[in-house]
Structure formats: structure tokens, C-alpha cells
Amino acid sequence: MAAAPFIGTVGATAVNKQVSSAPQSVAAAPAAAKAQVRQVVLKTGMAGGKMVYLDEKGNANPVLRGNVGDTIEVTISSGEGAEHDIVFEGLNVTSPKFDRKSGPVKVSFKLAQSGKFTYFCSIPGHRQIGMEGTLEVTGPADASAAAKPAAKVMGAAPATSTGGVAAIAPAAANAVVISQDPNAVPRPLGARAPQLVKYAIETVELEGRLDDGTTFTYWTFAKKVPGPMLRVKEGDTVEVALTNNPNSKAVHSIDLHAATGGLGGGESTQVAPGETKTITFKALNPGLYVYHCATPSVAHHISAGMYGLILVEPKAGLPKVDKEFYVMQGDLYTKHAFGTKGHHEYSQERAADELPTYYTFNGSVGALTKEHKMSVKVGETVRVFFGVGGPNKVSSFHVIGEIFDRVYSEGATNTVKQNVQTTLVPAGGATITEFKVQYPGKYLLVDHSLSRAGKGLVGALEVTGKADGTVYKASDKPMADMAH
């Protein structure tokens, strides 16, 4: 039988209409056409700022058409290199996932029922950003085809369901430390005139250490969680060139809360693997701001590590301190329970229900207790630039054994609170805390929603120096004896 080309059109026909799978009546149906094999060639790409499926003529999300009894053969590839699949809703047809490395895959299925059926990408967020089209099938239902397998897949083995959570894979042997060093704070800028400040940032997907014997596939800015801290001056012009590593499986972007316009840059920096896009913005408002990836599913990209802080120093600068630290909190959602050894995968379901498996400071369990050291001396003044990447949970930031002398609430540099014990920081928000350390010992950084400490959320500040008994004193003697 000769293969027939698919029929594809673009328009408002059925992309957003309700899907109907009711068979047409035999009496009303036109004369049955001879069954054909209809070959569909698609690739994924970007059009109009959205992810889409493209036909051979470059039409976005083309309407596919066929008759009952026809066989549809879809050959599909990743045009921009990111990972995708194609699902035909209501037809029990799902392709394997594919990307630039895998090459094209093929899925073949017989049309047994008339109606309008939606096709889409099931990668979280991709359907929402535009990867959705329609298959229109005409003719009476073919009852003889109902019992036949729905689809034949070529190019990779389809995933199978075990009816529950699959066994966890071994921890990645090549996992690296992704946690950001809290000491990695750019130097204060001092008094200077506004200028052009350029940053080049690469998004990288890599296997990273989550906990002892536990790994996770992180999505990062510059291979660290959080990404690099950026420091500019009020009035500066900021140029950010975002490059997506060629080995990435996802499109990435950057939304800087310090930028005005263009969805903070997220509108203009949807960057496919191997590409670079650049934005320029004016730093109009001083303060401490979060930046993060803004590619759907945004929650997945942020939870997997794509967040950081940008400080816009006020024109007069910030008061001088002895030591500055960079700390960010995140909530991570995995398919297996906290502490399970092996390689964890992201759970879209737990993220949707806002049920984190892990909470982290700087990306991993032990980042601020085992992997990196925060240390100061008695008498020094400490400044902590603290932010919450999220994507979902608010932080009650507290340092056990200390009081914040000053808090720049919500990162605003024109409002300073004094003598604060615990400060609220919203998801996607930040704060600046300052305090003078007056007694040696270990001070613990926590979220005072303290159950989260048992899920990884604790850091340590080591203070060395001479103890002052008038500040703090401990004794095993009863109170009466201490009075003499």
C-alpha cells in the first residue's frame, strides 16, 4: 500500500476546543475511504516565544487529519535539542522521550475511532508553554480495531508501569559537589559612578551529591546551587548573557527580580541547548533580589537548583562589615523518601502537592556543615545575604544563639529593623541580616519551622576567640553556690 502524506493545517480549528471522542453515526458518515498509511514528520522548536511542534513547512502545532482505518506513522525529533515526547490523548499512544542525542523516534498506530484528539508533550510544563495540537479523525468507528494494540513504537523501548514507585537507581558514580560556597560573595563596590556590568552565565545539568550515598540530577546556573551571587550598583546597566550547555536536555532561562520589563528577562531568554541569548536592563531599584529559571515547569527548574541572588547596592553602599556570607534555602521534591540511598528523581506530584522530601541550604544536605565552612572571630560583624529559591516554602530564618542586630526586611535597603530574633522570608524573596558575634562557639542556621532540620535544613557558623563570662556563662553549680 502506498504511503500518503499527512494533511496539516494551522489555525484556530481545534487546539483549544473540547475533545470529542464520540463516533459518528454510520448513516451520517461519508462513504468510507480506502485505508492509507499517513506519514507525519515533526520536530520540536521555538516559535513566537513558545515551545511547539513543527511540520516540514515550519507550521506550528499543525492539525493532523486522517480517516478511521488509516495508520498514522509519526517520526519526530528534537529540533532545538531539548528532551520531549508526544502523547495522543485518548488513543493510548505515547512516544519514548527523545532529544538531540537520541535522534528521531517513530510511533505508529491505527485510527479506530472518529473525533478530535489532542496531542501534546508530557514533560512537565511543556504543554502549558505551547506544545499542544489536534488530530482530527473522520469516518465510522472500526470495532474490529478496538482490541488491537494501540501503538507500535520504534526508536526506544516505551516506559512500563510497576503500579507503584519504581526501585531507586544506584547513586551516580560521577556525582560532584554542587553546593555553593557561602564565602563566595563579590567584594563591595564602593563609591563609583554607574557603569556597564556584564555577566556570562552557563546553565548546566549534572549529577550532584544530595546527601551521603544520595545523588540527584541538578539543573544549575554555573554548576552550583545557588547560582553565582551577582553584585551591581543602583543605576548600573547590567548585561546578562545566558548560555545553555549543549548537553542539556531542557530549555532554560533567567528571570531576575531586579529587572524591570520582559518578565525579568524570562520572556527573552528561553535558551535551547547550545544557544546563547543576552538581555540588558537598568538596575533601577536598590535591594537584594532573587533570580531563577522561568521555563515551565518553573517549579521543577527552581527546585532542581536554578536560583540565585543579585544585590543592587544603593548609591551610598552598605555599611562596612567584617564578613559577608551567601546562603539560600530550597525545597526539593523526590519520588523516594528522605534518606533513601541511591539516585533520586524529581517528583512532579509531590511538587504539585507542596510536600518537599528535602530542604537544603545551598543545594545539599550538609552543604554548610560538612562541605563548606563559615567562620568568624569574636568581635567581628557578620552580614548574611539570605534568600529563598523555593519554589514553594516560606522560611523563618533564625540563628540559634544569636540575635540579628539589623534586618533589611524583604531585602529592602531603606528599611532596617533592629534586634530581631527570627525573620520571615517568602519564597522568591530575600533578606539581609547583620549581627556582631560576642561569644565563641557554634551557631546554627535554621528555618524555625524546625521539623525541616530533620530533612536537611541546618548550617553552622563557627566563632573563635576568647569567651566573655559577662556575655554568657555555664556552670554545674546550683544557683546558691554561684552567688558566693
From TrEMBL:
Entry cofactors: Cu(+); Cu(2+)
Residues at which Cu cation binds: H252, H257, H292, C293, H301, M306, H448
Domain (Plastocyanin-like) ranges: 210-316
Cellular-component GO terms for this entry: periplasmic space
EC numbers, comma separated: 1.7.2.1
Domain of life, per lineage: Bacteria
Leading EC class: oxidoreductase
Molecular-function GO term, any one: nitrite reductase (NO-forming) activity
InterPro entries noted in UniProt: BlueCu_1, Cu-oxidase-like_N, Cu-oxidase_fam, Cupredoxin, NO2-reductase_Cu
CDD domains: Cupredoxin, CuRO_1_CuNIR, CuRO_2_CuNIR
Record text on cofactor binding: Binds 1 Cu(+) ion.
Keywords, in A-Z order: Copper, Metal-binding, Oxidoreductase, Periplasm, Repeat
Catalyzed chemical reaction(s): nitric oxide + Fe(III)-[cytochrome c] + H2O = Fe(II)-[cytochrome c] + nitrite + 2 H(+)
Pfam family, one: Copper-bind
Keyword check for Metal-binding: yes
Transmembrane segments: none
Residue ranges of domain Blue (type 1) copper in the record: 105-137
Principal subcellular localisation of the protein: periplasm
Subcellular location: Periplasm
Record-stated family: Belongs to the multicopper oxidase family.
Subunit structure: Homotrimer.
Name recorded for this polypeptide: Copper-containing nitrite reductase
Species, as recorded: Ramlibacter cellulosilyticus
